[in-house]
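Researcher: I need the complex structure. Ligand is pyridoxal-5'-phosphate. Inputs:
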Amino acid sequence: MQFYSTNGQCPPASLEEAVMTGLAPDGGLYMPERIPVIPRAFFNNIGEMSVCEIAYIVATSVLGEIIDAAELKQIVFDTFSFEIPLRKIDSDIYALELFHGPTLAFKDVGARFLARIISHFSNPADKEVNVLVATSGDSGGAVAAGFHKVPGVKVFVLYPERGLTAMQRHQFTSLGDNVYPIEVMGTFDDCQRVVKEAFVDPHLREEMHITSANSINVCRLLPQMFYYFYGYSQFLRNESVDRPCTDKVVISVPCGNLGNLTAGLLAMRMGLPVSRFVVANNVNDPFARYLSNGKFTPQTPVRTIACAMDVGNPSNFSRILDLYDGDYERIHRDMTGYSFSDAEIAESMKEVYDRNGYVMDPHGATAYRALRRNLSSGEKGIFLATAHPSKFSKTVESITGVKFTTPMSAPTDDVSEHHPTPRITPSLPALKKFLLSAT
Ligand SMILES: *Cc1c(COP(=O)(O)O)cnc(C)c1O
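Model: Output:
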């Protein structure tokens, strides 16, 4: 199995090259050259299987010829160290709760898997692998937790001096060991720019092996397929479905960079019985607009209460186009898009909480609302609940009145006072100096 670039201007890469470089040399995103179809027999007893068992079978069909079976099994089992329950919200709607991992967002799945794959490919005799990630919030914590104590790897988290919540910062500043937080005197865009400059700096490349852990990396994408299959298996069990391949489900995805959706579309190609996907955007909705009029126009993002989806130019759009050979009609047949204002997202959070006591975070709530809007009678659907509501406690409390007094893994005091993190100016020389002294 090899991986090709969506730009088609460079030769296919091995998994190792694709993972260790992140972006293809021609600026494209890597895609698997084949999408294996899982035998239908798999679905006959999928209802009895654990998330690890399901993930291992799906992982083997894609990566089985690259990574040894016992090792792949270990990687999968280490990735899914937490529950991914499916909860019934309405008579026809379920939530797939992807937020029970260490940093309380679905990004834990991709980050944990990627960390283990990078560690698999890094040779202790070689230079240490240095992972750089710029974060505006959730990615930094997930990547840091995913790589924490992974041998042969150091992770550098660049974050802007303003904009993160205390909890988000705490998730990567409190770890220590091989995790190095770096506060940048600038914005998230500054962090991203400095990281990009570091990747193309010849001197730095000579001195150290650096790679990226952002969502363009194909090994953050692939593991996200696994939980779609697991969600479906729990759906079968709950609904006592006896014709697994004919009884299909509608799946609603809260979208930002479109990584989660792309993983779902790959799962569908592999045989997951989905009738269609519902794309849920906040007002930053270039993809929902593309689905309604066939035109893709990136926009400057505006801030919303579902801030992890404040993306104006989603990077995985090119993967979706590639998957459908740019055929708008076929894309349109498989998915429908919606976008909602903050007021509409808040209305759904409040309405569901008042009606049945279920607390949704703003991202999950966006997907719930889109699904509610899209389902016809007689159909059933699943929406992806991507973050724990306690991660957005202020917003959740102001809308529903629900208080999270001791949010999981939240700081009890300002830990950064005890472990001051280095601050750098938003420039490559400042970052280089720090990296070279830390390695
Ligand atoms: C990152 C994120 C999203 C968006 O996922 P994409 O794969 O970028 O589309 C949705 N919800 C939460 C909570 C996130 O952190």
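Model: Summary of the prediction. The pocket of pyridoxal-5'-phosphate is lined by residues 105, 107, 138, 215, 254-260, 308-309, 363, 386-387 (CB under 6 Å).
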